[in-house]
Amino acid sequence: MNERSHMNTDIRDARIGLLGDMIRIRVLEERCAELYGQMKIRGFLHLYIGQEAVAAGIVPQLEPDDAVVATYREHGHALLRGVSAASIMAEMYGKATGCSGGRGGSMHLFCAERRFYGGNAIVGGHLPLAAGLGLADVLADRRGRVTACFFGEGAVAEGEFHEAMNLAALWNLPVLFCCENNTYAMGTSLRSSESQTDLALKAAGYEMPAWAVDGMDVEAVRDAAGRALATVRAGGGPVFLELRTYRFRAHSMFDPDLYRDAEEVERMKERDPIATFAARLVADGVVDDPAVEALWAAARDETEAAVAFAEAAPFEPVEDLTRHVLAEPEDHR
Amino acid sequence: MSGELTDREITYREAMREALQEALTTDDRVFIMGEDVADYGGTYAVTKSLYTEFGRDRVRNTPLSESGFVGAGIGAALGGMRPIVEIMTVNFSLLALDQIVNTAATFRHMSGGQVSIPVVIRVTTGAGRQLAAQHSHSLEGWYAHVPGLKVVAPASVADARWMLAAALDDPDPVIIFEHTGLYNLRGDPGTGPVSLEGAAVRREGGDVTIVASAGMVPKALDAADELAEAGIDAEVIDLRSLRPLDRPAIRRSVERTGRAVVVDEGWRSVGLSAELAATITEDCFYCLDAPVARVAGVEVPIPYPKHLEDASIPQVADIVAAATNVMEGVTVGG
Fold first, then answer.
1. Which positions 86-105 of A are in contact with B (Cβ < 8 Å)?
2. Which alpha helices (H) appear in B244-315, and where do they start and end?
3. What is each CA distance from A73 to A101, A183, B107, B132, B185, in whole angstroms?
């Protein structure tokens, strides 16, 4: 192959990778919903279904030394950050081999090795944390590192959002703020809760580059994130992206979904990020239907292996209940 | 507790400042951040002129964003630094309660032991300066309620000088409560080091144990002097650490004296004094010759006028009276 065809192959593979990543999240989470119905997974379970293009467009672009701080709707981010489906599933089962040792559950996935710091379930509470991770990189002169912080549009109503945006911009911190605007903070619509619904405008008020992106289009997300990450890595300070997306499922498994019309959900499903992107790739001649089906099959295999792992995994003994409150001798500093 | 004596006498404020200076000098990961810690020198002048020596990156002024900068301190600790975050007063720390309780105290646990938050948060506390009901409370007991935190209250110049180093050396979040009434206390800082945990017997005595912390320790010592004149030999325990509590030290003392007076500047109900009284009852019930007495803050937001402020928090005379009553078998209800 010549150089040009190599490049074309790389581009093709990258596009297929985006589709595959979204499918992996979708399959894992559809299975989570089933397992919730079977009471294998308990507590709160917040599904990301419909929003996959955001994580898929951003997380794989991060470097190993970067950090990720996410919300309680973070299964997809963790998976694409390289936290294994098996350890994610085991965590949701509350098993000792889960990525947080079973202590966190669905809302608190952690993986120090991947610099994946939650799984944070106080809306807006992790934004100052992201600023602090960025501050550590600046003070330790670790140039080029980025902390990617994911949060929903509901967080912009919290004071912590504004405090973190100000600190990040004031101190020129290397943080990529990814606001996943899925329109509803639980059941509260943005329109009914914010005087200013243009979120990029809010962020721009803190003197940082900010723009809105079609969060249902994985390639648009990828391109925007690439641009934003380049700015942050180059020392340009924080960037804010508003990813306009939509969750097809209810807020959590407890949510009867009374606050929005079924018609609205159906209309948005026509913009399903996976179906539309798969169709685009087929139309572009990048993949054919069997190739797409192979991606689904691979994801199903991954998920089923994860379920088998979680089923077989042990629970932590009750005698260990009070562990991990303070440092133990073997804990790293 | 504080190593050798040094023949030197400095104030609690100077001791704290020396500790900060040493930390900044010896560890590149250490930085200070808080409201007006640089040019202004800190509300209580503890960080005065440190920025001229270490620069504004490491002695970092913050906006008035307690939740934001405490959270950033927690994040920086997660990112490998050793931040020292100063909060002007414990009342303001409530704006950062989410970060301290929901993040700093939980991350190790929620992650199954994978991450540490080695942040140090310095908070001034206490009444006595006529600052009224939004700058004067003693809420350290609230923080001492929370698993995942360590809470200390240096009440001596030596502890002010050396507890910071122990806190920075600890892999978990440590909150240091500095009572505003102690900043001008003078004493020998000693050579250190000191342990972060463990109570200290500040005065030995055989008749009654007075358990105190923070700004109540000097008052308890003064009370013990007065009691001695009346023939009562009081032992004074300085808790030093409110979480964890040094239960064995309290038990050892009360087992000998058979009587206990618990002193806390915070409100009486559901607070530190209640915890101490319950602990003593659990650990020493069969050694007690009298019910445990409590001397605690009156159930009122701290008022502005001097006479009312004084009346709202424990004074030497209150401690003397409580100890005398305990000795005479007089039970005073709460």
1. 98-104
2. 247-257, 272-284, 306-312
3. 19, 15, 17, 44, 51
Which residues of B sit within 8 Å Cβ distance of A? 29, 31, 57-58, 62-63, 65, 67-81, 83, 98-99, 102-103, 107-116, 118, 147-148, 150, 170-172
Determine if the pTM surpasses 0.90. Answer: yes
Q: At what angle do helices B12-26 and B157-168 cross, to 10 degrees?
A: 30
**Cβ-contact A89, A30 below 8 angstroms:** no
Indicate the burial class of A38 (C-beta count within 10 angstroms; 0-12, 13-18, 19 or more).
exposed
For residues B216 and B265, what is the distance between their CA atoms, to the nearest angstrom? 7
* Nearest Cα to Cα of residue B216 among B322, B107, B145: B322
Find residue B237's DSSP bridge partners.
Answer: B201, B211
Q: Are A234 and A191 in contact (CB under 8 A)?
A: no
Of the candidates B68, B112, B113, which has its C-beta nearest A164's C-beta?
Answer: B68
Identify the residue whose tokens are 């952690």.
Answer: A110
- Mean pLDDT over B202-230 rounds to 98
Distance (Å, whole) CA A328 – CA B12: 32
What would the two tokens of residue B239 be? 């808790």
pLDDT at B94 over 50: yes
Spatial distance between the Cα atoms of B251 and B273, rounded to a whole number of angstroms: 15
Tokens of B313: 């928090």
Give residue-wise pLDDT tens across range A225-260: 999 999 999 999 999 999 999 999 998 888 888 999
Which candidate, A65, A14, A80, places its Cα nearest to that of A233? A65
Q: Which chain B residues touch A129 with a CB distance below 8 Å? A: 71-72, 74-75, 78, 99, 103
Which residue on chain A is closest to B99 by alpha carbon?
A125
**Nearest CB neighbour to A333, from listed B70, B81, B116:** B116
Identify whether B229 is a catalytic site residue: no
SS3 content of chain A, % helix, strand, coil (to 5): 50, 10, 40
Cβ neighbours, 10 Å, residue A78: 28
From the number of C-beta atoms within 10 Å of its C-beta (0-12, 13-18, 19+), residue B145 rates as: middle
B214, amino acid identity? A
**Contact status of A328 with chain B (Cβ, < 8 Å):** yes
Whether residue B265 lies in the annotated active site: no
Rama region for B146: left / alpha / beta (φ>0; ψ in -120 to 50; rest): beta
Which pairs with CB-CB distance under 8 Å and at least 24 residues apart come from A292-295?
Answer: A292/A19, A295/A16, A295/A19, A295/A20, A295/A23
Please calculate the CA angle A177-A178-A184 and round it to the nearest 5 degrees: 125
The span from the CA of A259 to the CA of A265, in Å, is 11
Instruction: From B323, B147, B326, B311, select the one nearest B244 (Cα to Cα).
Output: B147
- Asked whether the ipTM of the predicted complex exceeds the cut of 0.90, the reply is yes
Residue A54 C-alpha, separation from nearest chain B C-alpha, in angstroms:
24
Question: Using one digit for the tens of pLDDT, what is the confidence trace for A30-79?
Answer: 999 999 999 999 999 999 999 999 999 999 999 999 999 999 999 999 99
A71 touches chain B (CB under 8 A): no
| Cα B246 from Cα B251, distance rounded (Å) | 9
Which residue in A has a C-alpha nearest to residue B31's C-alpha?
Answer: A139
The one-letter amino acid at B253? S
| Contact in structure between A178 and A151 (CB atoms under 8 Å) | yes
- Cβ neighbours for B270, distance < 8 A, ≥ 6 positions apart: none
- CA-based nearest residue to A324, from A108, A70, A92: A108
